[in-house]
Design a protein that fits this description.
With 345 residues, this protein is of the alpha/beta class. The protein is 52% helix and 10% strand. It has helices at 9-24, 32-42, 46-53, 58-71, 89-104, 112-121, 126-133, 138-150, 155-166, 170-175, 186-196, 214-227, 244-248, 256-269, 298-307, 319-326, 330-333; strands spanning 29-30, 86-87, 167-169, 203-207, 238-242, 275-280, 312-317, 336-340. The strands form two sheets. It has a six-stranded mixed β-sheet with strand order 3-5-6-7-4-8. Strands 1-2 form a two-stranded parallel ribbon. The longest helix is centred in the N-terminal third of the chain and has 16 residues, at 9-24. GO terms for molecular function: ATP binding; ATP hydrolysis activity; peptidase activity. It comes from Mesoaciditoga lauensis.
């Protein structure tokens, strides 16, 4: 329906959520008010920050928007099943306007604030009419957005920075043709996909000797995801490779590493399951970021999110390091499902 690569991580999540709204209300036409409702339901984004800056009653805005979404009723398909989704002209105009606003503000990607501006700029859209009822116009919104930016980066911007600074987007690299083709690893890739689709113990860890091609297997998965040749539950996923070196670099003081990792984890938790984190040399998370006399390390920060299913990971390590570090940490080990990787045949 739309190219998610044109959007920031948060805005892309919003656009995916609009499709969830269509399913929820058994509708098949994406309208501007779906985009507005998805923005409001997310609760933490630059657009909401701007609305709060203008003292807008978010709950009342949500109630009114939800009322308008419900008014259209459902499609002819059975509840919970939307066979084909369409973008209405007003929603398309909103997205086009949002893209123009991003360009005008010097931003490379469309953010939630641009979506909000796109709505108010598309004056004949339902979303614009709702916003106007709350006393809003494009000038007020633009000023509020600038105020939010001037008073420091929004949480959305901070989270985007965390992803770009400390991870490498393997799915994006696959789309750009930067990854080498992977041959003879279909079995391991299919096993990873199967594990990622589980409700429990759904974090695969590739275990094998150095140089057997564990990272290449993950890159093979990224190529399948980017081309859409995966089950529905893997579509639109982002496979991000953690750069532990960058995450630790420069963290001289107590709390710096923890804050970086917390921001990264919170960002992934807020992606509605759309981000899968690849941790090469998984054993390095045990003890990473710990300080003398302290017990906190990366693994202790990851375990709660893994246990609650808020964080999805793929790990890679050697059998020796797995036994030495991971296996001894029972709470960490039970979150992962091992996949043995031998030399390719």
């Amino acid at each position: 329906m739309f190219n998610l690569d044109e959007y920031t991580e948060k805005a892309a999540q919003i656009m995916v959520s609009t499709q969830d709204l269509l399913t929820r209300y058994n509708q098949d036409q994406l309208r501007s008010e779906h985009i507005l409702l998805a923005l409001i339901e997310d609760e933490e984004n630059a657009a909401i920050d701007a609305l709060k800056n203008l003292k807008v009653n978010i709950q009342k805005l949500k109630d009114k928007t939800e009322e308008l979404v419900r008014e259209y009723g459902g499609s002819q398909s059975s509840a919970g099943e939307v066979r084909q989704m369409y973008i209405t002209p007003d929603a398309r105009h909103v997205l086009e306007s949002a893209k123009n606003e991003a360009g005008r503000m010097g931003d490379e990607k469309i953010g939630t604030e641009h979506l909000l501006l796109g709505m108010i700029k598309t004056s004949d859209s339902i979303a614009a009419r709702v916003l106007m009822r709350f006393g809003l116009n494009d000038e007020k919104l633009y000023t509020a957005i600038l105020n939010v930016r001037k008073n420091g980066k929004s949480k959305e911007a901070e989270n985007l920075d965390a992803l770009s600074k400390f991870t490498i987007d393997l799915t994006q690299q696959a789309k750009e043709g930067k990854l080498d083709p992977v041959v003879g690893r279909q079995e391991e890739i299919e096993r990873m996909i199967e594990i990622l689709g589980r409700k429990r113990k759904n974090n695969p860890v590739l275990i094998g000797d150095p140089g057997v091609g564990k990272t290449a297997i993950v890159e093979g998965l990224a190529q399948l995801v980017s081309s859409g040749k995966v089950p529905d539950y893997m579509l639109n996923k982002k496979l991000l490779s953690l750069d532990m070196g960058r995450l630790i670099a420069g963290t001289k003081f107590r709390g710096e590493f923890e804050e970086r990792l917390k921001t990264l984890i919170d960002t992934i938790k807020g992606s509605n399951g759309n981000v899968i984190l690849f941790i090469d040399e998984l054993h390095t998370v045990v003890g990473a970021g710990s300080v003398e006399g302290g017990s906190l390390d990366a693994s202790n920060m990851l375990k709660p999110a893994l246990a609650r299913g808020e964080l999805r990971c793929i790990g890679a390590t050697t059998i020796e390091d797995y036994r030495k570090y991971i296996e001894k940490d029972k709470a960490l080990a039970r979150r992962f499902q091992a996949i043995d990787v031998d030399e390719p045949t």
